[in-house]
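Quick one, T. Sequence first:
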Amino acid sequence: MPTWTRAPRTPFGVNPERILLAADPLVRVLAQIRFSPVLSIREQSFVAPFQEEIRHTYPLVEQEMQQHVAQGVGGELTLGEAVLWRFSDAERNWQVTLAQDFVALDCSNYSDRTDFVRRLGETLRAVAAHVRPVLTNRVGVRYTNRLSGMEKIGQLPDFVRPALLGMASAELGAGEAVNELTQAEFTTNAVNLQGRWGHLPASATHDPSIEALDHPSWILDLDAYTAVTTPFDPERCSAEAERFAGIVYGFFRWAVSDEFLVAHGAPL
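Structure tokens:
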């Protein structure tokens, strides 16, 4: 039977101690700040000063064109193109994405919250100096955890709360749940949390930006955000991102058992 001595009693309203996991299940951490559109971001000459400021940390740059459908004044649908600038470190573990209406920082080699928020603050200050957006309309932080391998999948009843097991916890006789994804929306202290969790079969992913595995997996994907229009302020956005990361971590720590922590390298 799983034990929960190190887990908070509830998923919200707590601030559990941070525990370093040697075998961290995180596959991606993302912070995104949406702002009022800056159409000049399409132009390389406009983006160049921003790139110059972050170039020593993120030396690789790629321009990407994405198609999107827009609705005109009369209701007609038109096909448009959006420009994305992606700046990466040499190992491609960290990436800054700049678009006409958002900036994002994501990483696949997360070390700790302090480092992530520091990098986010540096990026946002560069945006403020060179892109100069006027308004922010969404701040969000997303943590995606994934368990894979038949041994870990088989241990799920000992690793996570029964509320997150879904049909995997039911007696199915000769059958088994191979593809089941649950989505839930929560709110706490004026912050929204969208959670997705469940089983995925081999070669399946719940997000096109996350590479599928060639074997079954279980994911816990948590996105904390607010959608409020305020003046663009790098320090406020960084502070909110840090607070939202704490909310996500509180839910994560509530969700997983002592056995999960030990199996992933937590100190005893």
